[in-house]
Design the sequence.
């Protein structure tokens, strides 16, 4: 990615969640899919999408006088950015500290923690089997 990510406002994040779920969409489709009650005005949604485009999160394809917008930043890329920011700000850069906090506050028992660790190992196994990158 050749730009630095910035944290989105809650409204921008809601728009991105719709685009990540639906894929390329017109403003009216994004507006209809937003959870806001009452619904946001068309112009408000249009402005949010244009701001996201300026920030490098979405791109558009023109169809006459209307535009279809698509995400440029993958949801997992943004998730990773937010998680790194959270861990850096609240857990002194320690993912172990985050895990410890989650275990304490979520009330996980040993079996649930074992399952969580097992899932993490399963995610690592394909990378380990592939060997080091050259």
Sequence:
């Amino acid at each position: 990615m050749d730009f630095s990510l910035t944290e989105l406002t809650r409204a921008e994040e809601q728009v991105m969640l719709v685009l990540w779920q639906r894929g390329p969409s017109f403003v009216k489709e994004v507006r209809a899919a937003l959870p806001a009650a009452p619904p946001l005005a068309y112009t408000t949604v249009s402005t949010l999408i244009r701001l996201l485009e300026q920030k490098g999160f979405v791109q558009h394809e023109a169809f006459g006088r209307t535009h279809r917008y698509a995400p440029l930043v993958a949801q997992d890329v943004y998730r990773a950015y937010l998680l790194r920011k959270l861990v850096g700000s609240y857990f002194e850069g320690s993912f172990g500290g985050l895990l410890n906090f989650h275990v304490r506050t979520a009330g996980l028992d040993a079996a649930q923690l074992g399952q969580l660790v097992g899932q993490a190992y399963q995610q690592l196994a394909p990378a380990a089997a592939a060997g080091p990158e050259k």
